[in-house]
Amino acid sequence: MPRKRKVRRVKYEPVLVAQRVLNNPLYLAITRILLENNTPLQAGEIRRELIKQGIDISVGYISNILRKLEKWYIARPYKNPMNGKLLWAIRESSKAVEIITEEIRKQETNIILKTWGIEQ
After folding, report:
1. Tens digits of residue pLDDT in 104-113
2. Which residues have CB under 8 Å from 17's CB, separation 6+?
């Protein structure tokens, strides 16, 4: 009888995950794309959005990053019921996502205030 394989569940600290995403421009760009879209996206669609931002990377590399974001409880995969393709969306109930969203809001607010000539 084959042995049952032990699965090791790792608890990732939300603050450390948020720091890692916020300090890596590629992780942050993909997370922003997922946050800005209300519908789940395929890796190819995420690539098109990244190209619009001037970032040209392969779909395979995007898939690897999405797997990391899934492991850190930021992204969530879905199967498209029509064609079975993998779609990605942001996890709403994640503490790390809340921290990242709040930090993005702060950064955007600072940019707007500087544009208006109001210093904080």
Report:
1. 999 999 989 8
2. 72, 73, 74, 96
